[in-house]
Write a sequence for this structure.
């Protein structure tokens, strides 16, 4: 019974997050640029930099499919492997059905400890929603997905930029990818570069490579 | 200065914000059931309850747990033995005993989430708690027994 309640609460809060995302998507981000103010060529250049970020293990490893098996890329290694200790995010995507992610990935805004201690964030650790699969996908597949409102939390281009800023305001997963603690590799560039690139890509009409 | 409640008693501790809860419990408050095994959440020996949830205390830092209710093995039974502790004794689970406080706290969390766990449920949830004595078979038996004692509720 308690398990059912926990899962129901988790799914309910996921819906709230989705609804919040829908609302945010309708808000204009101060960082977003007017549609059409950036050329398609510049937009594709921006996408190349975005792709290098979203396919980086630091960002892709928790964007997994419905099996909800998080991926590890241990510090000093480039090959991915499944998360140890039988950890599964479950339908809740936060491990509520078995071991909550926050058992080890404790919610904290303090700087990340050095590898191999687990990473932390200012919001409860979780897998990305199941619609947002990045791990194992090509850059062009992720590009198509990112501009599809059915697979990006109902966000338009400005909403995606706002999502980044909102996550940063919570010391969430996205900006902390660039501050993963000693021994871990961050994605290329900086968080600010990524926000700027998302704005450029959005203003160019979200072009994707062929 | 931070305030936290451990086993129902309020404490004030003068430590740096980054100090892990495990250090605070053992070195500042003298509560020694949570053990230092690895310091990186890979063994589970330091597991305690924070606001009722099992958490690796080596990863919870003081600034993040201030004001929260911490429960260690010393108080899980509210003055008597918890059914999981009783089952642990009946099944003679501990050998060297070093990991057992963490094992019991994790087992209590398991039974809250899954009142009648299967062997597979136990293996999945207890996989993050390592035992160098290899008491896993006994742990499994004790968890089944504790589930019976608790009525699968």
């Amino acid at each position: 019974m308690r398990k059912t309640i926990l899962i129901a609460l988790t799914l309910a809060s996921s819906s709230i997050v989705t609804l919040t995302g829908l609302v945010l998507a309708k808000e204009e981000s101060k960082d977003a640029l007017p549609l059409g103010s950036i050329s398609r060529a510049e937009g594709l250049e921006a996408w190349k930099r975005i792709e290098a970020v979203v396919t980086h293990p630091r960002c892709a490893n928790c964007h997994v499919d419905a099996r909800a098996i998080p991926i590890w890329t241990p510090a000093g290694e480039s090959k991915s492997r499944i998360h140890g200790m039988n950890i599964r995010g479950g339908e809740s995507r936060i491990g509520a059905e078995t071991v909550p992610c926050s058992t080890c990935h404790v919610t904290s805004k303090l700087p990340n400890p050095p590898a191999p201690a687990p990473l932390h964030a200012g919001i409860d650790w979780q897998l990305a929603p199941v619609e947002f699969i990045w791990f194992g996908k090509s850059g062009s597949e992720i590009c198509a997905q990112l501009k599809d409102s059915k697979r990006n939390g109902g966000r338009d281009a400005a909403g995606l930029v706002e999502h980044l800023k909102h996550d940063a305001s919570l010391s969430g997963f996205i900006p902390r990818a660039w501050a993963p603690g000693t021994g871990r590799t961050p994605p290329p560039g900086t968080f600010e570069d990524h926000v700027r690139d998302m704005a450029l890509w959005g203003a160019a009409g979200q072009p994707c490579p062929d | 200065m931070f305030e936290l409640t451990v086993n129902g008693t309020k404490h004030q501790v003068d430590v740096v914000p980054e100090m892990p809860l495990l250090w605070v419990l053992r070195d500042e408050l003298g509560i020694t059931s949570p053990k230092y095994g690895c310091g990186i959440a890979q063994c589970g020996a330091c597991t305690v309850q924070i606001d009722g949830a099992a958490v690796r205390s080596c990863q919870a830092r003081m600034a993040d747990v201030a004001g929260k209710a911490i429960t260690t093995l010393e108080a899980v039974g509210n003055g008597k033995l918890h059914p999981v502790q009783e089952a642990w004794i009946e099944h003679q689970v501990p050998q060297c005993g070093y990991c057992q406080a963490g094992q019991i706290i994790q087992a209590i969390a398991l039974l809250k989430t899954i009142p009648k766990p299967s062997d597979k449920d136990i293996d999945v949830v207890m996989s993050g708690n390592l035992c160098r004595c290899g008491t896993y078979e006994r742990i499994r038996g004790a968890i089944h027994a504790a589930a019976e004692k608790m009525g699968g509720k």
Observations:
- The helical segments of chain A are 2-25, 40-54, 57-60, 139-146, 157-169, 173-176, 191-203.
- Chain A touches chain B at residues 1-3, 6, 84-88, 96-100, 102-110, 116-118, 120 (CB under 8 Å).
